[in-house]
Fold 3-hydroxy-3-methylglutaryl coenzyme A reductase.
Amino acid sequence: MTDPEDLVERVREGEIRLHELEDHTDADTAAAARRLLIERETDTDLETIGDYTFPAEAAEPNIENMIGAAQIPMGVVGPVAVDGGAADGEHYLPLATTEGALLASVNRGLSVIDTAGGADARVTKNGMTRAPVFRVAGVAEAAETVEWVTDNFETLLEAAESTTSHGELIDIEPYVVGDSVYLRFAYDTKDAMGMNMATIATGEACEIVESETPASLVALSGNLCSDKKPAAINAVEGRGRSVTADVLIPGELVEQRLHTTADAIAEANTRKNLTGSAKAGSLGFNAHAANVVAAAFLATGQDEAQVVEAANTITTMDAREREDGTTDLYASVSLASLEVGTVGGGTKLPTQAEALEVLGLRGGGEPAGSNADALAEIIAVGALAGELSLLAALASRHLASAHEDLGR
């Protein structure tokens, strides 16, 4: 182990670079030296940033130039009964956020859902995408390339799957724009979120495309994937897991617990989430689904930037009249692009691994992919609860007072 003071001096003298510290000492000492340097260069105290509980070595696959950890308050909501294709039974959902009143609101929604008998949830589509872009001379070569790809799917499947023991190539959808050919590869990545898996597999397949067609690869990602950006293709075709959750809440329960009516919530949803979102040109037709998704992503080690795609959520609320004349509330959320995993990436960090254990979903599932499916379903139910609670607060005009009561 090298003294952090010595390492700081060596960096200042140009003997070693800041990102090379781990080559000269262990990960924790490297982080301490880097922190010490930044404290002196910026005249700051990084004591709290440096007060983390996991070994820095555990974070080496997830961060470069580490100086410590950002601590975000984590809470839990639930339990709620989820009847899913993979999730089953009562579940707590850990959420990490700095937004006051969020967990209280989601917890209120989950309590109502649970009292109504729980929510149903299903993953309806699964496919992590990567879409390389190729250059051709013109439309004739584009058509030749597309025809070859269509006729030789099995060849490309073999090449792509040779790079992974888990991923399965599901589909290749071609798109032609002038002298550009885009191939949108879609994979079942099982319990991994799978972005790296899809990238590596697609790179192998692209070598075959280049050798057998006139097309030349320009970029392994041509933005038709589309990763970490608002994109209509993800809202329509989906990316990662497409998941829907719904619940039917008796009218009397709406009135007793949410202090409004099914008709009022349905109207608020139509005028706000549907008409208002359409007028705004939004890709998401929801109240704040991204709030719950982001908090769940931070808690469970997902790629937080992919909350952009998760915001492509459609919320529906419908007042359904019963034979006795009372009106119940049907509520649902449909998330077209929820990119989650229970293995790999940030899920291996100690804090996030513990959060997944709370859900009973740490690591790979049996069968493969079932844990990630269950996580998607539970997060969808959490998003449904958030939508229900916020729309009820708006319909009853309690939103501002709720924030005031919680001191926000």
